[in-house]
Please model this.
Amino acid sequence: MTAKFRSMLQGVAALACIALVCGLLLGAVNHLTYVDPLAATYERFAADTGASFSEMTDEEGADYGNGSVVYYARSDDGGIDAFLVSGGGGFGGNVQIYLYIKDAVIDKLVIGENGETYLDKLEKADFYARFVGQDVTSFDPLSVDAVASATRSSTAVKNGVNAAVRYYNEKIAGGESNG
Amino acid sequence: MDRRKVKETVLGGLIKNNPTFVLVLGTCPTIAMTTSLFQSFAMGIATTFVLIFSNLFISLLRNLIPDKVRIPCYIVLISTFVIIVQMVMQKFMPDLYETMRAFIALIVVNCIILARAESYASCNKPLYSMLDGVSIGLGFTGALCLIGIVREFLAGGAFAGMKIPGFPAMSGAGASAFGFIVFGCMMALFNFAIQKINERKEKMKAAVLPLGGGSAAPAKEDKA
Model:
């Protein structure tokens, strides 16, 4: 009994020690490679649009069930509303999307972090073009046809775009964040 | 270091025990990540990094890890290095990371790494284990790159990202199925080449042996 207990304890101790050392190693690497999400999002917004963004208008975002707005920022010249949205319902979890609205029209849509393996099918089917150029005041992203054989990835993208459209109509066009 | 063992370890990973073409391990990333040369190379290098360091640490700790918990310990170590690869890629190669994200995480369950940990690193010295990691990793990278070149050229109509004008690209489903066909054909070619080399070696050995045994003289006499 004692020998069995000792062997068990040895195993647990070894595993715990290895896990601890690995945790410390990961902590050190994380410290060296940490990317500030806000700074990274500014850079991404600027790179995608060519405009400058110096502050995040809404760092808290908003949740709309299957989709959520992570960050919202308005460009310094006020011409572009930039969103980082997250669409749920994908095959590999949530799909992050960078979405840009100019004069109440979706100007650009760029896919960000995701765990999907079928997004190339969306690209080949020109799925993203179905959103670009749409007037957000009258557009329902959920009514866009999904791409066959990549329906869950399509749904995640639609949910993400829907969150941005709802946010825009409720909080920006509605006047809450215009000030 | 024993020269013979070093030679055996290096050549073993690259040719004799090539993880893709001979051991047929890690077929998931082989099929999924060989649509282009660049992706194949990046996947190979990421796996090589994990192989080298997991082999090193497992070998260093081989006498301390109790037999009963060795697999969980190996998995903890392997996943640590996979996360390090993810962090480094995310920081320094964000675009590449976005395209490979789903598959980088799957390196944890790549059977090449666990197989080398269990069969080599757990019973060999750290330096040999590292060398085995380098050799197996390069063998894997080389195999992926070969398949990547053929698939990108024949299915994508491109070479190293550059489109070849007038060369048609296959549709998605065709390209996926083509991956299996290319993998199978290259495996057959590789093993055929190895077999031929071995046969030639055997023949040369057989030809040299009679001279050493002193039986070449009667043969000469017969000819005369």
Summary: DSSP finds four helices and five strands in chain A.
